[in-house]
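It is worth pausing here to work through a concrete case rather than discussing structure prediction in the abstract. The textbook approach is simple: state the sequence, then state the predicted structure, then interpret. We follow exactly that order.
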Amino acid sequence: MASDSGIASLGVEGASAAAHALSLPADAYGNNPQLEVMWAMKAYNHAEVYFNLISSVDPKFLKLTKVDDNIYSAFREAFQDLDIRMWRPFCNQFEGVIEDFNYGTLLRLDCEKDYTEENTIFATRIQFFAIEISRNREGFNTPVFTAKIKS
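Step two, the predicted structure:
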């Protein structure tokens, strides 16, 4: 998943401006197409880095945040049957604990495959952490790692 048109193509000044713009509260913007492009580039960069990480390191040993154990325990306790109506209260409990917990990021639908248009959805950052930490701990991301080792 290499990209020459990612956030690095903005240069230091452009990347700094993008980071600042993306840190402002949502109500500071309308539907600004330029901001949406910057967000998409940031989200793609995050997806690229994460996929490279789980391709290179056995995901069972990854620590994505300082509070992985807390997120995993809370996620599994709250979502034994994965009732989607519980997402908002689940997510809100990490406000102030996980930086940018409510920001958007990309999530793979099939954890054995790369980020592609067909295999990617939008999720909040805490949803990404909860699902990916669970995938890592339960061995579902291991095929990505083992495929990389074999190649």
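Step three, interpretation. The longest strand covers residues 104-108. The chain is about 50% helix and 5% strand.
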